Amino acid sequence: MKVLGIETSCDETGVAVYDTRSGLLAHALYSQIALHAEYGGVVPELASRDHVRKLLPLIRQALAEAGMTVGGIDGVAYTAGPGLVGALLVGAGVARSLAWALDIPAVAVHHMEGHLLAPLLEDDPLGRPEPPFVALLVSGGHTQLIAVDAIGRYRLLGETLDDAAGEAFDKTAKLMGLPYPGGPQLAMLAGQGRAGAYKFPRPMTNRPGLDFSFSGLKTQVMLAWRDGDQSDQTRADIARAFEEAVVDTLAIKCERALEAAGCETLVVAGGVGANLRLRAKLGEMAARRGGRVSFPRPAFCTDNGAMIAFAGALRLQAGQHEDAAVRVLPRWDMATLPAV
Ligand code: KG4
Ligand code: ZN
């Protein structure tokens, strides 16, 4: 079964073709970062309009890369939420129309389920994690720890009470004058920071529980930056201390979540999963426990169509799809998803 995947929940247009026999055939991505940069954040209406411009050309590009025509598609998968309502509607509208015209099934995919299943896209079957596992979802909009009992059966173990981890990276970067989206740049700067020059707290780690709070950290950074000499070295030193605080906090909670869920496999997904210090730290933790941690390749950590095509393919294969109505869910609880 060849499934066309469409992702338009935020500021990336992603399209992919996944074949349930031979794996990923093609994927194409267009990032709107340059469009939103001058506003310092994503402007929802501009995002929707740009998805309208880019989606059909990207579908043509992905089909050409897969060496097929639109008639070769057996099903369509699209992100129906959570995300920006206008942006989601573009993908949902195109996906539903295509499915209607081709008389094939279409399935609504939960964006975070896409992220969570991305590590299962890897070619090497031995490298693929199998449920049950614990998933750490760390993106610009989410920070969640989820117990994955089976594909489609998700239990929320903990989540952020305020800023998401990626949002904390972006806001902290902005505060120190880095352009949007600052997360990856802040991480790069952290590499030049000196160990121990600054130290920030690890929020909510000294009491039990699996929830997070990152907004206080931002204030700590603001005070350190305001009271410092604002030199390049200071910026790098603060970036390093901030990154260490976020990474340590995530690692402490991941270890607790593994203990709570009684399993030793951790899967990390979402944009912050591309962070090298986080990857190294969780790798050390897993090795010490005799367990394992899997990450999607960096390109599939951030938003992409491949993860949506894959998650949708699993559900379509199980016979799941919906009627032709174009429906999106800007907010959508993963625990309400049907099992596969
Ligand atoms: O999953 P994603 O592409 O989009 C959402 O669904 O939110 O995640 C984007 C987030 C942004 O906040 C970005 O700053 C952050 O991931 N990010 C990083 C890194 N690369 C992306 N944060 C820290 N270190 C990185 N290397
Ligand atoms: Zn995402």
TrEMBL record:
Gene3D superfamilies: 3.30.420.40
Superkingdom of this protein's organism: Bacteria
Binding site for Fe cation: 111, 115, 303
Segments forming domain Gcp-like: 24-310
GO cellular component: cytoplasm
Cell compartments where the protein resides: Cytoplasm
Chief location of this protein within or outside the cell: cytoplasm
Co-factor requirement: Fe(2+)
Binding site for substrate: 137-141, 170, 183, 275
Protein's UniProt keywords contain RNA-binding: no
Cofactor note: Binds 1 Fe(2+) ion per subunit.
GO terms for MF: iron ion binding; tRNA N(6)-L-threonylcarbamoyladenine synthase activity
Pfam families in alphabetical order: TsaD
Catalytic activity: L-threonylcarbamoyladenylate + adenosine(37) in tRNA = N(6)-L-threonylcarbamoyladenosine(37) in tRNA + AMP + H(+)
PROSITE patterns: GLYCOPROTEASE (PS01016)
Record's keyword terms, sorted: Acyltransferase, Cytoplasm, Iron, Metal-binding, Transferase, tRNA processing
Family matches, as HAMAP family: TsaD (MF_01445)
Function: Required for the formation of a threonylcarbamoyl group on adenosine at position 37 (t(6)A37) in tRNAs that read codons beginning with adenine. Is involved in the transfer of the threonylcarbamoyl moiety of threonylcarbamoyl-AMP (TC-AMP) to the N6 group of A37, together with TsaE and TsaB. TsaD likely plays a direct catalytic role in this reaction.
The protein's name in its UniProt record: tRNA N6-adenosine threonylcarbamoyltransferase
Lineage: Bacteria, Pseudomonadati, Pseudomonadota, Gammaproteobacteria, Lysobacterales
Gene that this polypeptide is encoded by: tsaD
